[in-house]
Specification:
Four Helix Bundle (Hemerythrin (Met), subunit A), extended, quinone, membrane, cell membrane, NADH_UbQ/plastoQ_OxRdtase_su6, NADH-quinone oxidoreductase subunit J
Length: 173
């Protein structure tokens, strides 16, 4: 088996994405978790570039690694959280986790089993940014704008909740 540069780049990006996900789940500080999430988002964007999906890669960086991460950091900064450690789950939680992992592994197996390694010619990579832009700003303009409104409402909700907590603590003193 020969390793091409593309295969090596994919392996590095995939391992980086998995490491970021594992770190996200295992770190204790929320800000460190957000940094691990950014690492995962950026490596996934690299994989999108390798798939000739430049628009999706840029959106991945702008929306996920940028906007969503900033909103998460705002939520962290604006809300009060106490450092408490949760008790580890019991047997039921472990069984449900095992079932979830087995279900995911089965779905991946079915996906790989049905994979067609000799795809037909596709024109999706030709002018894909133009094709996505035309579809996004003609056919899907309403869901696109509603997404921005939902993100704005989430940010305003975090601010309102943080202000209510501050007012309650000010009244207690």
């Amino acid at each position: 088996m020969t390793f091409s540069g593309e295969l090596l780049a994919f392996i590095i990006l995939a391992i980086t994405a998995v490491i970021g996900g594992v770190l996200l789940l295992n770190l204790n500080k929320v800000v460190h978790m957000v940094v691990a999430l950014i690492l995962t988002f950026v490596s996934i964007a690299g994989i999108f570039v390798m798939l000739s999906a430049e628009f999706v890669a840029v959106v991945q960086i702008l929306i996920y690694a940028g906007s969503i991460t900033i909103i998460m950091l705002f939520g962290i900064m604006l809300t009060r959280h106490r450092e408490t450690t949760e008790a580890k789950g019991g047997g039921l939680r472990k069984i449900l986790l095992l079932l979830g992992v087995l279900g995911f592994a089965f779905a991946v197996y079915i996906g790989i089993y049905n994979l067609d390694l000799n795809p037909q010619e596709s024109t999706l990579h030709v002018n894909n940014v133009e094709q996505i832009g035309m579809a996004l700003y003609t056919k899907y303009i309403i869901p696109f704008e509603l997404t921005s409104v939902v993100l704005l409402v989430a940010l305003i909700g975090a601010i309102v909740l943080a202000k209510k907590d501050d007012e309650k603590e000010a009244n207690k003193e």
